[in-house]
């Protein structure tokens, strides 16, 4: 996977927690907001007081929105987004990228309130605007993932897969966005009984999560790949990297690809996973993998 270069907010939060000064906050556009949201996501709310002075007025209202979300206070969440959106559109503080980000949050909030049609309008607007402003930005990837989820919740799995197809593993999207997209796409493909395509997507997701140090997600994707791939293990099967590089859209009426994996791939996955297991169900899957490798 080709990775878009960007500041890793997890690393910055870790540095701040280790006692490094607030001056290490990244200086890029809206990067301090991204770090603040990461801190909230990790439950490190004590850092927010130090970060808040480095946020602009719009960003501060987005943080207020995040706290309202955590408190399940829909009214406060709506008020924070309304204020943030108005400021982002004002002549004095015009910010097109934040406006598009706020419209994405409105889409998510409206979907949670049952306002599905308006939610779709907000999400679509956000996707298109961020793509025009900064294709591959982390918020562009997030908007596409949310748009895909919106379609899936409406039973439009084909449209959801089309949204995931907009996130190419060749860039410019960030590796963790690609991994999350492929993981979600795999679930849709399994439901549609496109199992070999699901295997390819799980493989990409697993390696993307590893590349971005998201080990828990990598373990989960890897176990699912093994569980699905144990349908058939054969030295005649193509190795995953070859299958991924040679994949082409299937023509109408063409039979589905055979669901099988190569023992080299299974061994690689088994070796990576075996030292990271402490769950009995997961160990059972690995035991099955080990037996397959012995046979």
Strand fraction band?
under 5%
What is the arithmetic mean of pLDDT? 92
Helix % is 55-70%
**Shape, per Cα inertia axes:** globular
Indicate the radius of gyration in whole angstroms.
21 Å
Measured distance between first and last alpha carbons: 33 Å
Low-confidence stretches: none
The number of helical runs is 15
Q: How many β-strand stretches?
A: 0
Helix-and-strand structural type: mainly alpha
Q: What oligomerization state is this entry in? A: single chain
The biggest beta sheet reads:
none
Give the topology string: H per helix, E per strand: HHHHHHHHHHHHHHH
What does this structure look like?
The longest helix has 19 residues, at 116-134. With 295 residues, this protein is mainly α. Helix 2 packs parallel to helix 4 (57-70), helix 5 (74-89) runs antiparallel to helix 6 and helix 6 runs antiparallel to helix 7 (116-134). Helix content is 67%, strand content 0%. The two termini are 33 Å apart. The chain is globular and about 65 Å long. The protein has helices at 9-17, 31-41, 48-51, 57-70, 74-89, 96-112, 116-134, 138-153, 157-165, 175-191, 195-211, 215-229, 240-245, 263-274, 280-294.
Features:
295 residues; mainly alpha; 0% strand
Fold blueprint:
Elements lengths: L8 H9 L13 H11 L6 H4 L5 H14 L3 H16 L6 H17 L3 H19 L3 H16 L3 H9 L9 H17 L3 H17 L3 H15 L10 H6 L17 H12 L5 H15 L1
Helix pairs in contact: 1-2, 2-4, 4-5, 5-6, 6-7, 6-8, 7-8, 8-9, 8-10, 9-10, 10-11, 11-12, 12-14, 14-15
């Amino acid at each position: 996977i080709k990775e878009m270069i960007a500041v890793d907010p997890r690393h910055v939060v870790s540095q701040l927690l280790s006692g490094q000064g607030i001056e290490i906050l990244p200086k890029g556009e809206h990067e301090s907001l991204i770090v603040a949201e990461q801190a909230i996501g990790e439950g490190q709310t004590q850092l927010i007081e130090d970060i808040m002075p480095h946020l602009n007025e719009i960003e501060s209202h987005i943080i207020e929105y995040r706290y309202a979300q955590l408190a399940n206070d829909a009214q406060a969440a709506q008020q924070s987004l309304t204020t943030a959106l108005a400021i982002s559109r004002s002549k004095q503080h015009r910010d097109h990228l934040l406006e598009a980000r706020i419209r994405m949050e409105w889409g998510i909030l409206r979907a949670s309130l049952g306002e599905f049609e308006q939610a779709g309008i907000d999400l679509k607007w956000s996707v298109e605007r961020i793509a025009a402003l900064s294709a591959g930005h982390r918020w562009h990837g997030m908007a596409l993932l949310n748009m895909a989820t919106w379609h899936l919740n409406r039973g439009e799995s084909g449209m959801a897969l089309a949204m995931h197809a907009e996130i190419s593993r060749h860039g410019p999207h960030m590796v963790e966005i690609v991994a999350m997209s492929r993981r979600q796409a795999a679930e849709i493909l399994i439901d549609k009984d496109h199992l070999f395509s699901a295997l390819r997507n799980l493989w990409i997701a697993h390696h993307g999560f590893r590349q971005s140090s998201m080990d828990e997600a990598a373990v989960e994707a890897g176990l699912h790949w093994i569980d699905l791939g144990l349908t058939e293990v054969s030295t005649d099967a193509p190795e995953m990297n070859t299958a991924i590089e040679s994949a082409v859209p299937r023509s109408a009426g063409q039979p589905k690809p055979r669901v099988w994996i190569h023992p080299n791939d299974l061994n690689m996955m088994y070796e990576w996973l075996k030292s990271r297991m402490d769950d009995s169900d997961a160990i059972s899957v690995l035991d099955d993998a080990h037996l397959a490798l012995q046979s």
